[in-house]
Amino acid sequence: MSSFIEMIEPVIDHSLTIANRRASVGDVAHGLIAALKRIRSAVEEVGGYTMVSILDGSIRDRLIIRGLRAVRSGERELPATIPVAGPRSLIAETIMVAAAETCVIYGADEPDVTGLLYAAFMLVDRLIEALHAAPTCDDLLACLQADDERDEIVFADEPEAVLASVH
C-alpha cells in the first residue's frame, strides 16, 4: 500500500505542472475538479453510496476545519468562487483526469480505498492552492455531484406514453 500512496503526490503534481503550463488558473481548477470527480466515481464504484457519502463528508470536514483554523489564527479568508470554464479547460481536464485515472488503476490492486481517499484529499488541497482560497463546501460538492444528478435523469426510465385516440 505504501508504494501506491507514495506515487500519488508525484503523479498529481507532475500533471498539475503540465496543466499549469498549458492552461489558465481557472481552467486548471476545472481540471482538478474533473480529476476529483473521477476519483469520487471510482470510490463509488468500489464502495457504493455509503463510501462516496463518507468521501463527501470528509471533503466537507476538511474545508470546515481549514476555515476554523484560519479564524483561530485571526485570518479572514473569503471563499473562492469556482471559475467559469475557459477555452483551455478541456486540455487541463484531460491532463488531470489522466493523473486521476493512474491513481485509480494503481488503486484497483489495493485491498481498500485508502489510496483513493488520499488522492481525493490531495486534489482538494491542490484546488485550494490553485484558487488561493477554499471554495465553499456547497459549491465544491455541487460541482462534484452535478453529473450524478444528470446521469440519474438521463438514465431514468422514461414514463410510458399515454396514447389517446381522437374520434
Strand-helix topology:
Elements: H1 2-22, H2 25-72, H3 89-107, H4 114-131, H5 137-155
Helix pairs in contact: 1-3, 1-4, 2-3, 2-4, 2-5
End-to-end separation in angstroms reads 71 Å
**Rg over C-alpha atoms, rounded to the nearest angstrom:** 19 Å
Order of helices and strands: HHHHH
Our count of helices gives 5
Mean pLDDT value: 87
Portion in beta strands: under 5%
Helical residue percent band: over 70%
The main pleated sheet reads as: none
Tell me, what's the shape?
globular
Secondary structure category: mainly alpha
Q: Which residue ranges are poorly predicted, with pLDDT under 50 across at least 5 consecutive positions?
A: 148-162
Please provide a written account of the structure.
This protein is mainly α. The chain has one domain (2-155). It contains 5 helices and no strands. Helix 1 (2-22) runs antiparallel to helix 3 (89-107), helix 1 (2-22) runs parallel beside helix 4 and helix 2 (25-72) crosses helix 4 (114-131).
Question: What are the main properties of this structure?
Answer:
167 residues, 0% strand, mainly alpha, 75% helix, 5 helices, single chain
How would you concisely characterize the structure shown here?
This protein has 167 residues and is mostly helical. The chain is built from five helices and no strands.
